[in-house]
Structures are given as structure tokens and as C-alpha cells.
Write a structure and sequence with these properties.
Helix content is 23%, strand content 22%. By secondary structure, it is of the alpha+beta class.
Length: 93
Amino acid sequence: MSSIAEKLYTIRYKVDETSHLIIKDQDVCLHCETKECQDFCPADVYHWMDKESMTSVAFENCIECGTCRIGCPTYNIEWVYPKGGHGITYKFG
């Protein structure tokens, strides 16, 4: 049985220059006590940076599962599909 890391290795990305994931308001993240986005994202896209008091978004890692659209308790993450030709390609087998 493959590990998650091994399965994620089979994914191929064509990264766009601009993020398809947008934090609507960093102040909302600042006051979020649980910072759940760091836990529910399987690709570790979201990281709270204490020093900068903001959530960083590594959109290049996104596997387009859409969990962040419904997982953020304040709906503070805007998620749109990457532009045509960009995003993730799954390889099966």
C-alpha cells in the first residue's frame, strides 16, 4: 500500500503565475483561534506565520480538492479553478 507522500508524488502540476487561492481578509485569520486550515488541507497549502501575523498560501501545492472552500469556519478563503491549462493532472496506475 502506498503512503500519502508516495501518492502525492504521482501528481503533476502546471503552476500558474497567480494564485487561485485567496485569503479574503488576513485580519480574520489573525483572530481565528483554531487556524484549522493548517490541519484540513492535505497538501499543506496554508501556514500561519507568527512573525508576519498572516496566513501564507503555497498555492503551488494545491491538489484542488476544494476542502478549504468549506473547511474554513469563517469562509475566508476564496477558491477558484486555475486558469485553463494550469493546475493539477492526476496520473493513475
